Amino acid sequence: MFTFERTVAYSETDRMGITHHSNYVKFMEDTRVAYLRAIGLPFEKMEEAGVLSPVVSVNVNYKTPSTFADVLVIELKVAKYTGVKLEVEYTMTNKESGAVVATASSSHAFLYKNKVCSLKKVMPDADELLRKELELSK
Amino acid sequence: MFTFERTVAYSETDRMGITHHSNYVKFMEDTRVAYLRAIGLPFEKMEEAGVLSPVVSVNVNYKTPSTFADVLVIELKVAKYTGVKLEVEYTMTNKESGAVVATASSSHAFLYKNKVCSLKKVMPDADELLRKELELSK
Amino acid sequence: MFTFERTVAYSETDRMGITHHSNYVKFMEDTRVAYLRAIGLPFEKMEEAGVLSPVVSVNVNYKTPSTFADVLVIELKVAKYTGVKLEVEYTMTNKESGAVVATASSSHAFLYKNKVCSLKKVMPDADELLRKELELSK
Amino acid sequence: MFTFERTVAYSETDRMGITHHSNYVKFMEDTRVAYLRAIGLPFEKMEEAGVLSPVVSVNVNYKTPSTFADVLVIELKVAKYTGVKLEVEYTMTNKESGAVVATASSSHAFLYKNKVCSLKKVMPDADELLRKELELSK
Lengths: 138, 138, 138, 138
Description:
Four copies of one chain form a homotetramer. Chain A is an alpha+beta fold. Chain A contains four helices and eight strands, in the order βααβββββββαα.
């Protein structure tokens, strides 16, 4: 299981005194970026191959508030990968208290020359990597 | 149907040249804030009554990209209201092209003195308003 | 004098209960964008001409806090324009109380094919417009 | 000299392909927060003492663009400290290229019970720490 740590910034809180809920969508992306780099598929590699991976949907369930200076431990796992679609799941935990702060998921497509593509065709090595990751997460 | 217009700011775009996906969660909140004000239930009124309404979940489906200077027309409707939970749905359309940019939903609880509460008990007039809105949206 | 109104969003507040200070830099940009459109020099026109206008410096003096739902009236005036550099000044006032919330300035260069350029050479009509604006602001 | 490292997030870029200029104001705050923690003056300590430290002004000079995944090395030094006002200077360098990305400064007041105060009176130990830091930075 891939884990990533992210400290909540002052600018990410709101007047309720807690982390503004929109920021968790950024935390998910930060985790995804670190994960893809860790498995050998950094964005530069995808960009060089002319592949973009836009976000198709996000879903966040807020469980416990977090706030400034809290360290979130974010677990990421590949929930589904079909060659044309990637689904990722996240569990965010407060490092100090152990409380689950949020669970979330996001799904992603792959674009080549602005058209939806099969990653297997345009980046077979990336396809291989994600299939392996899917297996590992089962 | 309540509608709200929101122009995408330069700072809300990303290096893919489009509106960063996390911003749609902010657009939802901006719409909700305008909506609650429009129906006579502005945040000041809830704050005075000691009621907070945290976000319990958000869900966004991205359909077509938008970018800097695009005007989004955001429709909001109350999908569910039980007295302790509120569910809201959003449809965001590009004003110029008419394309659906995103559909989304969010759910909300009510807190009184940091405890989940029934809005009917702590703010009966607000409860009445939301029940009426639920009826209208059917 | 050009004026622009901007309502503070919930997501723009912080746990001190006020508008996070970084957001004023965004408000300045929003005002600049609206101003350039108003004088007939929208970003699309500059982009078509291959001209980018990066921010060279910003300076903000915070006078009175603002918070969620406050409407800021932002005045903009061209303080200096030399053909290669543009300096803009801002005064942000709370619409309801009339209090000055912040004064600010920003300076901007012009790039053509990634090199600093004279706007007079690459976009003579834009140069004309900005010289006129400078005169008007005196 | 205190240094802090900060990686630019995808969400912090804009459609020009570079880090949006407003984010540097957040990087300054992130650095300040880490610095105050490092010298033994974390925000929790100030909050417990009832002291707030609002930003009075910021100034940023943009030298070289940065973008997604760049690591910025941010140096911070105390430029001035009078007991009622704190001035901090920052130099942000691209870790890989060594290029100076931005230089910046910010000034801060101290509030006790919503009034400007002398830190020496309300938090003598914090005052001591900052005076020492000022000496060290000379």
